[in-house]
TrEMBL record:
GO molecular function: 3-dehydrosphinganine reductase activity; glycogen phosphorylase activity; pyridoxal phosphate binding
Name of protein: Alpha-1,4 glucan phosphorylase
Primary location recorded for the protein, binned into one broad class: cytoplasm
Keyword Cytoplasm: yes
Record organism: Leucocoprinus birnbaumii
Pathway annotation: Sphingolipid metabolism; Lipid metabolism; sphingolipid metabolism
GO cellular component: endoplasmic reticulum; membrane
Lineage, top ranks: Eukaryota, Fungi, Dikarya, Basidiomycota, Agaricomycotina
UniProt record similarity statement: Belongs to the glycogen phosphorylase family.
Length: 809
């Protein structure tokens, strides 16, 4: 800006001093030792792997910091339009390996730590995952940050700095999921910078008094005031100096404690407000695809959107433009409806504080926000009880009512007399209590609305937001199919394959890792026998790496001369892990019925499951229990254990996915048609040469268009049939014995105790016997047929490897 003022000293000395760690191995070892002795205050003689990891991380961080500073200064000077990604979840995983690869310093650091007597792979394993998310939505946010920095875009993320991330999953001897806390900040986190000077005040409760002068303004006073403190996480781009920022807010009491209460001898009273302020960012809600309507969750949402908006506005004001130009300088992407309170909050700031008129404010708001929907499942659509919003955010409730009034007036004008339409579209759902429909608010307050895969975006427009498309026009609605970062999900997790691709394409690695269309160049090599052998050998070594991981973490022996079949995702009825486990049982029963000679001819298979269930999701937890107990029986059966093995790997995480995905031959994406918005692991498997077994759902469809239908195993009913089938289940049910005898037999065997007492599973089995909302009885036969086709295809090894190569290509 030209407004910077240098300290009195010599500017040249300052500039000469500005650098990261020099990039020779000797500089790296110096920096490492320096951090051991100063930052960690430790000695060489008792330094363990954890300490060595921390020293390496601090040293790498020095490099990132220099780039981060330069990037931010550049943004300030150039004042470009900035993009902000508001997400309650960022499922980042580990950072060190990713940072080393992005900086291009991995080999040098490996040499450096080796010279100091450590092994790089051991150090990398010491890092805890930053697991501030549940699943797909949170991981997508992390991939977007990587992409934004790699493409040198001025993109910042905003989220919450939870003290506890997603719970740690333990499996009891009976096979039940137990939850333990995830104190990920127990060791100091080298990847964040506390910005104790960047703080904002956020208010809750209190009174909202309309001004009475008819200008729509109000004064919001009283209640509880909480402080938001910024923590910055550096987001390095790939092979660029651009290092973006993820700003996470921590809540803190505005005053340490209330001195008056303390002096009056009321010690509990003195710290009470401090306890509840800190509670706001203490823990990530572990629910995926459900909402609970809890006050603390609402406070999290408001705390985070209010702090982020204040920060964004302050930055905008530094540019010195009139407030009406705000949308030319900031675009705010809402990751699902979780940050939707940003819409009434920005209205409140513009009207009550900036003193704009309603219309001026609404114009700015509706040009600033963009809303991404991630699911059409009704139980996941957020609704907040009006009395709760009125209590916690009285001014926002007024504004929401005002938005609704003007909105419904406009609808009435376009569709006169259509009362039902008004009821359907209202921001307020009638009932006891009334509820605010957040998807409606996000939709009308945004400039664009998108779904996350073609089918899903179509469903958004024809189901949950149909009336809004009719009212606002279809051009506001679109599709942005999800993607994944190939840096983490290929180069980092499958470095051997990445090297082979680089060698084969005869391109610099950074060229194809920034332009994946280049992978098409692999296609002709599917016909090259020597290349296929190399390709297959890498898959084999990835299976062995996974087997070693299972051996060291669980003490179990996994055979690697088998097809690896993987389903890893949150446990949910719509994702149909139940269909998969019932298929495994069917295979087991079939194998048991074969002669030894017949068995020998069958395809050997190892089936892996991993995934967490929401702590209160009873049916999902029963599915885990069934998987674990089926595994116990199958893996111990001498008749079949050479042909079928089954594992439930506890505590699924980003880091575990990085080991599982490269080892997969076939992975399962088998949601009931129309329920999985996109899926993103499907893309990761394909990138790593894994084939898909799936339904015609989410991004599976677009993947098949790219890799070719012959390389994807599809089965099951299509989306348009689903509604009808559900109707049939309710009004013309057919007994399972008649409709699907193979499935009936499997269910009966479970009930009869083939895997231990069947009684605990009855509630799970009954979801299929009665109602069968997710269409297991309709899809089971075609699922088994598809599995048979997978077996047949796999037995032709050379052909399978060709498919694998073509899938990546
Ligand atoms: C979809 N989470 C995937 C992925 O777009 C898709 C909902 C409510 C409350 C808390 N969490 C949620 C989701 O809705 C979610 O994770 N959706 C997922 O988003 C990225 O690939 O198909 O299920």
């Amino acid at each position: 800006t030209g407004k910077e003022v240098w300290p009195k000293g010599d500017e040249k000395v300052w500039k000469a001093g500005t650098r990261g760690v020099d990039q020779d191995v000797s500089d790296i070892t110096k920096s490492f030792v320096n951090h051991v002795q100063t930052s960690l205050a430790r000695q060489a003689y008792n330094l363990d792997d954890l300490g060595a990891y921390q020293a390496a991380a601090l040293s790498v961080r020095d490099n990132l910091l220099v780039n981060w500073n330069e990037t931010q200064l550049n943004y300030t000077r150039k004042a470009p339009k900035r993009a902000y990604y508001l997400s309650l979840e960022f499922l980042m995983g580990r950072t060190l390996d990713n940072a080393l690869l992005n900086l291009g310093l991995k080999d040098k650091y490996r040499k450096g730590v080796e010279q100091l007597g450590f092994n790089m792979e051991d150090l990398l394993e010491k890092e805890r995952d930053a697991a501030l998310g549940n699943g797909g939505l949170g991981r997508l946010a992390a991939c977007y940050l990587d992409s934004g920095a790699s493409q040198e875009l001025p993109l910042w993320g905003y989220g919450l700095r939870y003290q506890y991330g997603i719970f740690q999953q333990l499996i009891s001897p009976e096979g039940n999921q137990l939850e333990a806390p995830d104190p990920w900040l127990e060791n100091q986190n080298p990847w964040e910078l506390p910005r104790l000077d960047v703080t904002y005040e956020v208010r809750f409760y209190g009174q909202a008094e309309r001004s009475g002068s008819g200008n729509g303004r109000a004064a919001w006073t009283g209640g509880q005031e909480v402080l938001a403190v910024a923590y910055d996480v550096m987001i390095p781009g790939y092979k660029t100096k651009t290092t973006n920022n993820l700003r996470l807010w921590e809540s803190k009491p505005k005053r340490g404690f209330d001195l008056n209460s303390f002096n009056a001898g009321n010690y509990e009273g003195a710290v009470e407000s401090s306890n509840s302020a800190a509670a706001i960012t203490s823990v990530l809600y572990p629910n995926d695809h459900t909402t609970f309507g809890k006050e603390l969750r609402l406070k999290q949402q408001y705390f985070w959107t209010a702090a982020s908006l204040q920060d964004i506005l302050r930055r905008f004001k530094n540019v010195g433009k009139p407030i009406t130009e705000f949308p030319d300088y900031a675009a705010i992407q809402l990751n699902d409806t979780h940050p939707t309170l940003a819409i009434p909050e920005l209205m409140r700031i513009l009207i009550d504080e900036e003193e704009l008129s309603w219309d001026e404010a609404w114009k700015i708001v509706t040009n600033t926000f963009f809303y991404t929907n991630h699911t059409v499942l009704p139980e996941a659509l957020e609704k907040w009880p009006v009395p709760l919003v009125e209590h916690v955010l009285p001014r926002h409730m007024q504004i929401i009512y005002d938005i609704n009034l003007y909105f419904l007036q406009a609808v009435e004008k376009k569709f006169p007399g259509d009362r039902e339409r008004l009821t359907r579209m209202s921001l307020i759902e009638e009932g006891y209590p009334k509820q605010v429909r957040m998807a409606h608010l996000a939709c009308i307050g945004s400039r664009k609305v998108n779904g996350v895969a073609e089918l899903h975006s179509e469903l958004v427009q024809t189901t949950i937001l149909k009336d809004f498309v009719e009212f606002e026009g279809v051009s506001k609605f679109g599709n942005v199919t999800n993607g994944v970062t190939p840096r983490r999900w290929l180069d980092q997790c499958n470095f051997e394959l990445s090297d082979l691709i680089t060698k084969t394409l005869k391109l610099e690695k950074n060229v194809w890792l920034k332009d994946l269309t280049k992978l098409e160049g692999l296609l002709p090599f599917a016909e090259n026998k020597a290349f296929r052998a190399e390709w297959a050998a890498i898959k084999q070594r990835n299976k062995e790496r996974l087997a070693r991981h299972v051996q060291t973490t669980l003490g179990l022996e996994v055979r690697t001369d088998a097809m690896f079949d993987v389903q890893i995702k949150r446990l949910h009825e719509y994702k149909r892990q139940t269909l998969n486990i019932l298929g495994v049982i069917h295979r087991y029963i079939t194998l048991k019925g074969m002669t030894p000679a017949e068995r020998k001819k069958s395809n050997r298979k190892v089936v892996f499951f991993a995934g967490k269930a929401a702590p209160a999701y009873y049916i999902a937890k029963l599915t885990i229990r069934l998987i674990v107990n089926v595994a116990r029986v199958i893996n111990a059966d001498p008749d079949t254990k050479d042909f079928l093995q089954l594992y439930f790997l506890p505590d699924y995480s980003v880091s575990l996915a990085e080991v599982l995905i490269p080892a997969s031959d076939i992975s399962q994406h088998i949601s009931t048609a129309g329920t999985e918005a996109s899926g993103t692991s499907n893309m990761k498997f394909c990138l790593n040469g894994g084939l898909l077994l799936g339904t015609v759902d989410g991004a599976n469809i677009e993947i098949a268009e790219e890799v070719g239908e012959s390389n994807v195993f599809f089965f099951g009913h299509l989306t348009p049939a689903v509604e009808d089938l559900r109707y049939q289940h309710t009004y013309h049910p057919i007994p399972i014995e008649e409709k699907c005898p193979a499935l009936a037999n499997v269910l009966n065997q479970v009930s009869a105790g083939l895997f231990g007492d069947g009684a605990p599973y009855e509630p799970l089995l009954n979801t299929i016997r009665q109602g069968d909302y997710y269409l297991i009885t309709d899809d089971f036969d075609s699922y088994i047929a598809a599995l048979a086709m997978v077996d047949e295809a796999y037995l032709d090894r050379e052909e399978w490897i060709k498919k694998s190569i073509r899938t990546t290509a």
